[in-house]
Design goal:
This protein has 15 helices and two strands. It is mainly α. The chain has a two-stranded antiparallel ribbon. The radius of gyration is 20 Å and the shape is globular.
Length: 414
């Protein structure tokens, strides 16, 4: 029988999960657009920013996840973290260079990763169990695309070629994030059995990196390995996605194409997440990866509206459902009472390794990309369809790694 979590949990999860993803969408998808439009960033600039943020996120999550286990608190880190996270977002309204954008991106990532990557994700693990993990991940993995939809819809009324528009955007996102953090004091409830760790902070920090722990939790670490390869595939194209739609394909109305694909993919993922609960990991992840691969192929070979919509839909369905299945596998195999300590190794697989390798591979693919002249005499690059073939090549590697590491379709036993 599935464990009931209550209305208050789902509301808190929806509010914190969605707002956290809105903030990450602005960083992961629109900071690239921001420095591209305002400062004429190169592929190397964008790659450096993504890589610096990934390193910061990984280090922060390792440390603060362990600290939250040590003190036995999630709520305090979530609420205080969201409040300061919002304030740091507002600071981007006053940035005037690529260098300062990268520096402040790392500062913002520290607070965001403390609140979301470390505390929020540990909280979700604390509150769920093996009877409802797929359902939780189905809803939670829907949040990134819902956030994209919210951000796309909100940004449609702004002229992103002007600094004033970005100033207003940063204030709106920052103030909203801060207010939700304050509301969390009344919404969030820590798991009743959550207690401070009796281990020293050093032991808590290093626990998930011990070889003996990896051997005892083989399915978890194999899952993280595969998750990292999956993330590399996504990060090959994601930093350049909106620029590709708008500048390379010339789709000024890309939001109207992308938004319906996002809505359908989000609905699909809510239902797909339950497949993991009933059929296990391999029977859930392989169809998702094949769907993603077909989406890449369609986007590689097409440039017109309808085929691009179909390719985007397949790509987003595969991406989101893959996130759902990997997330459920990882949470299902984290030892009880240690969810904070394992957020560090989770973020290494989910963010750090993909954030280092994926954008660098994308930048290498685009090193000879076409360059266009801007009206002010500067130049900008145009991402080309090579990002899709490179992402597909990584995905083929993932399917081979999956076949070699996971022998059954059931969760827990790999």
């Amino acid at each position: 029988m599935q464990t009931k979590l209550g209305t208050k949990f789902w509301i808190a999860m929806a509010v914190f999960g969605l707002m956290g993803q809105v903030a990450w969408v602005v960083e992961n998808m629109y900071f690239n657009v921001f420095i591209y439009k305002m400062f004429h960033a190169t592929p190397a600039d964008i790659s450096l920013m993504v890589m610096a943020s990934a390193v910061t996120a990984a280090l922060t999550t390792i440390i603060m996840g362990a600290v939250s286990d040590k003190v036995g608190k999630r709520k305090a880190f979530m609420t205080a973290g969201y409040i300061i996270w919002g304030i740091s977002i507002i600071s981007f309204a006053y940035i005037k260079s690529i260098f300062m954008t990268i520096v402040m991106d790392c500062v913002m990532t520290y607070f965001g990763s403390t609140a979301n990557d470390a505390a929020y994700n540990a909280w979700l693990t604390d509150r769920g169990d093996s009877t409802n993990r797929g359902k939780i991940e189905g809803v939670n993995s829907m949040m990134p695309l819902v956030a994209i939809l919210v951000v796309f819809g909100g940004f449609m009324s702004f002229n992103l070629d002007t600094h004033h528009a970005w100033t207003v955007i940063y204030y709106i996102i920052g103030i909203t994030t801060t207010l939700i953090g304050a509301a969390g004091w009344f919404m969030i409830e820590d798991a009743p059995d959550l207690k401070p760790s009796e281990e020293s902070l050093a032991e808590t920090l290093t626990y998930s990196f011990r070889p003996s722990v990896a051997r005892e939790n083989k399915a978890l670490y194999l899952g993280l390995l595969n998750f990292a390869v999956f993330g590399i595939s996504i990060q090959v194209f994601m930093p350049y996605l909106l620029i590709y739609y708008e500048k390379t394909l010339g789709m000024d109305n890309y939001v109207l194409i992308f938004a319906p694909a996002i809505i359908l993919a989000a609905i699909f993922t809510v239902f797909y997440g339950r497949r993991y609960d009933s059929q296990g990991f391999m029977r859930s992840i392989v169809p998702a990866m094949l769907m993603l691969l077909v989406g890449y192929a369609v986007l590689f070979f097409t440039k017109t509206t309808v085929p691009v919509f179909i390719g985007s839909l397949l790509m987003m369905c595969g991406y989101l459902s893959g996130m759902s299945v990997f997330g459920a596998l990882i949470r299902d195999n984290i030892p009880e009472g240690r969810s904070g300590q394992f957020q560090g190794v989770r973020i290494i697989g989910q963010v750090f390794i993909p954030g280092l390798i994926g954008p660098a591979l994308g930048a290498w693919i685009l090193k000879d990309a076409e360059v266009i002249a801007n009206s002010d005499g500067t130049t900008s690059f145009l991402p080309d369809r090579g990002i899709w073939s490179a992402a597909a090549a990584v995905l083929v590697i993932l399917l081979a790694v999956l076949a070699g590491t996971f022998r059954t379709g059931r969760k827990k036993n790999g």
